[in-house]
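Hello,

I think I submitted the protoporphyrin IX containing FE job twice by accident. Can you confirm which output corresponds to this input? Input:
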Amino acid sequence: MLTRAWIRWLLTHGLLRTYLRWAARRGDPLGQIAVGQDRLLGSSPYIEEIRRRGRIPSMSGVHVTADYELCRLILRDRRFGVVTPFHPALPKPIRRALDKTDLGLPNLGEPPSMLVTDPPDHTRYRRLVRHAFGPKAIAALEGRVTEATNDLLDRLESKPRPDLIEDFSAQLPVTVIAEILGLPADMHPTLLKWGDTGAPLLERGLSWTTYRHAIEDLVEVKQYFDHYLDELAAEPNNDVLSMLATDGETTRREQVANAALLLDAGFLTTVNMLGNGIVLLTGHPDQLESLIAQPDLWPNAVEEILRYDGPVRMTGRVANCDVDIAGERIESGSLVLLSLAGANNDPAVFPDPHQFDVTRDNATEHLAFSSGIHGCLGARLARLEGAVALRTLFERYPNLSLDGPPVPHPLRNLHAYRSMPAKLLAG
Ligand code: HEM
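Support: Only one job matched these inputs. Its output is below.
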């Protein structure tokens, strides 16, 4: 299995990694973003450089845009499909090698994960699970999210130097998604570990070591969900994974891939929204004061956090036919990278975009959850968790301060923190 995994790594990550490093050394802004030299926000010089080159310039052989209108348009345009390692234009020997090295594991960045599957399969998967994340289902969770937040904050009090990522921001989303999926609380540490090793698979150009660790854990994820979905198929209840497990039209592989996606997507990014929000609010005491005085502003503050510093910086699409857009021809099969961070800082839509303003009246228009048919399925849940968790944290500890600079997360496409020591001073 290790040899097959290595060949697959080489084809899906290794060769691209070498190319991106070469492009970065040549000073190519896109290469620099891809290899992680750019760790700044959407206001970073690299994104400004993309803007200077045009609305949708071609760089390193791909089109890239930080233009809000074009990002939104492309995300909603059915002539574009998702990016997978299995491009139809790949030479036959490479496609054959990819088929032969298929590990059959629930890799988030490969089909049949719905995130990287086009219709009609995408429509089928999404229809099966969407009810669990609709307005009624999420509104019904508010009490439980509040209770889980308070439990975590109670536990923080006994810690002399709590870490607001490990002890708080990471715990709430995993607790909530595990309950939605019916997974037991004693699995939380394992689920967090699986998330940690699996998240890099959403990026391209991984090192062999990172890829191997992810694959090793995916073997466990597959075994766990295979077994759990068997149990649910035999004795279904009303939850979302029972719907998946008992659907006659989806294969077990499709079910496991999308169960694993729901789990990981359910906490991997929400933790970062909370972490980024804590950094922004402790760094902008005037904004925090407005929120303490006017708690109705919390939902809008969450939107502004997502706009100003959303966790997912970039996504991509492939043109399924020749498309003319903003005076450029995007040829069939071409890759277009969409800078969500850049779109959310586009001055044409968000006046004074580098100002963090919890009262901004169009903050909800951000693209932090993407848009179109792949727009985040869990956006409602994330918004609820953000408003409840941040409000409860800061109402209980209005004088909370960070104890030293937070440690950035090493993933390139996530703007996030891995650890955030803090001092809790009750108000
Ligand atoms: C602040 C938290 C979150 C952020 C910033 C976020 C962001 C995103 C983005 C940007 C996409 C689309 C990527 C693309 O278009 O290529 C996406 C898709 C998705 N998200 Fe989220 N997400 C968050 C929370 C959640 C939660 C709590 C869930 C719960 C299960 C979730 C489930 C999903 C799923 C299943 C998809 C794939 C949808 C599809 O392909 O149809 N997300 N998310």
